[in-house]
Give the backbone structure.
Amino acid sequence: MSLRDFETYAGITREFRFHRLRPTFATNSIKLYRAASKGRSVPYLWIDPPWQIFRGNEAFLHSSTYPQVERPGSRAREREWLGHARGFPGGYLLTLRLVRFQQRVVFDFADGWRIETPMRDPEPDPDWWFDDWYARGRADLQS
């Protein structure tokens, strides 16, 4: 995650605060959408690796543990990983915080869940063609 991502999308995440968000996983990326939208269209939050999910102080899942699917036997490991990932219920988004001294962004949920994404260089890398996380809000419905 870059500081640019936070500066660009933090304002949009306000419309997600205090709403119940449900997760879906596309390989090791997370899509969080309002429970009422059933995962279709916008608004949503999208988080690409690297990220880590915690419940309280315990690490629950890390994007880097997603199996490399091109290896033999990896489909079974992928199903197992996704089965474990379904244990993250999402929930009500309480806050989005930039923790500068730890160089990370934290999405805090009710019931002690949180997603953390590390900050990278503040300047965009021209070879890095996607954002580490982004938000699509109601205004994007009209675009």
Summary: The two ends are 25 Å apart (CA to CA). The helical segments are 3-13, 74-85. The chain has a mean pLDDT of 83.
